[in-house]
Amino acid sequence: MLKSFKLLFNCNLVLSRSCSGYVSRTRYLMRLREDDEACREALRSGNFLLYHKLAPLLQKTNSGVYKLACLKASDLEHILEKVGKDKRFVNESFLLGCTDKSEPQFSLEVGDLDRSALEQECRGMFVDLRKAFFMITGLESALVAKGQALLRWHQTNGFCSATGQPTVRNQSGSFRVCHSSGVTYYPKMAPVVIVLVSDGSRCLLARQAMFPPGMYSALSGFCDMGESLEEALHREVAEEVGLEVENLQYSGSQHWPFPQSSFMLACHATVNPDKTQVNIDTAELEDARWFTFEEITEALQKPPRNPKGEPPVFWVPPPYAIANQLIQEWANQQQLSRK
C-alpha cells in the first residue's frame, strides 16, 4: 500500500511541475479566499454555476449531449434582472476555483427564484445531481459536486454550535465566523472507506434499498473517530458482509457530495477463497453477492437504462464515481491475469 501512496505523490508532483500556471493559479485562489475585496472584484469577471435547491443547471449542446452550464457575470446579471432579482444577488455566490485561464468560478443557489423562468432564460434545465453524473463529463462532475457540497455546508452552518448566534461568511465562502464566540468554522468532509472485495476470481458488490433498481456498488462506510483507514476497512467488511479481509491495496481518493460531503478513500481487498460465505447485515444492505469477470465486463459496457426505459438487471455506478474506478481496475487486472 505504501508503494501506491508514493506513486500517487510522485504523479501529483510531476503534474504540478508540468503546469506552468499551476502555482500562479493556486496563489491567485488563495488571495481570493482571504481577501474579500479581491473576491468581490473577481465576481465581475467570473463564471457561475447555478443550482436550484441544490440541483445544478445543465445545457444541451448542438450535438445532443449535456454539459454543465457556466454563465458569465454579465449574462447572469442580465438574467437575474429579467426574472425580477437585483443583479447584486451575485454577491451571494461562493468561490469554487478557477479555470486554466485563471477565470474564477463560483456557485450560486437560486432556489428562491422561479425555476421554469430561469430555465427558459438560461436555455437549460436543473437536474438532480445523481442523475447529472450520468449526463456530463468527469471533470464537470467533480466541479458540480464541489459546488453543491459547498452550498449545502453553508445552508447547514448558519448558526454557532457554541452560542446559537448567527455565523457570518467571508466573501469567498471559505469560512464562517461567530462574532459572539470568536469561533471560525471551515467546510468539512467526512472520511469514508470504499472497498472492492475479491476472492481472486470474483468480486463482491452490494446494494442498499435506496439505490436505483439493479445498481450494485462497492462496500463503503464512515471511518470512526480514532480509526485508521485499514482499521475502518476491516471493520466495515466484517460488519456488512461477515467476511475477514486478508490483504488490502490503496487505489485513490475522491470527494463525494453524498450524503453531505464525504472524502472517499478507495481500496482493493482480498479474502480467503475458501471463506467466502456472505452474511449480510440487513440493517445496512438489501443484498450483496459475488460477481464473475464476465458479469462485471458486461455491466461496465452496459448503459444504466435500455431504450425502453427499463433498468437492467445489474449495473454499476457511473464512470465519475470512484466505485466505478475500483470495478474497472479489478476487471483490467482479471483480464491481464487471464492472458
Summarize the structure.
The chain has 339 residues and is an alpha+beta fold.
Notes on the protein architecture:
This protein is 34% helix and 24% strand. It is built from ten helices and 16 strands. The strands form three sheets. Strands 1, 2, 3, 4, 5, 6 and 7 form a seven-stranded mixed sheet that branches. Helix 2 crosses helix 3 (36-42) and helix 9 packs across helix 10 (322-338). The protein is globular, with a radius of gyration of 22 Å. Its EC number is 3.6.1.22. Residues 187-317 form the Nudix hydrolase domain. Residues 1-16 form the signal peptide. Pfam families: NUDIX, NUDIX-like, Zn_ribbon_NUD.
List the total number of helices: 10
Contiguous low-pLDDT stretches (5 residues minimum) are 1-19
Order of helices and strands: HHHEEEEHEEHEHHEEEEEEHEEEHH
Shape: globular
Share in β-strands = 15-25%
Termini separation:
25 Å
* Total beta strand runs: 16
- How would you characterize the largest beta sheet? 7 strands, mixed
- Category from helices, strands and their pairing: alpha+beta
What's the rounded overall pLDDT mean? 91
Gyration radius from CA atoms, angstroms: 22 Å
Helical fraction equals 25-40%
List keywords for this structure.
339 residues; single chain; 24% strand; 34% helix; disordered N terminus; alpha+beta; six-stranded mixed β-sheet
Helices and strands, with pairings:
Blueprint: H1 2-18, H2 22-34, H3 36-42, E1 47-52, E2 55-60, E3 66-68, E4 71-72, H4 73-82, E5 94-98, E6 104-109, H5 115-122, E7 125-126, H6 129-132, H7 138-155, E8 168-169, E9 176-177, E10 184-185, E11 190-198, E12 202-207, E13 219-222, H8 229-241, E14 245-256, E15 262-271, E16 287-292, H9 293-301, H10 322-338
Parallel strand pairs: 1-6, 11-15
Antiparallel strand pairs: 1-2, 1-4, 2-3, 2-7, 5-6, 8-9, 9-10, 11-12, 11-13, 12-16, 14-15
Helix pairs in contact: 2-3, 9-10
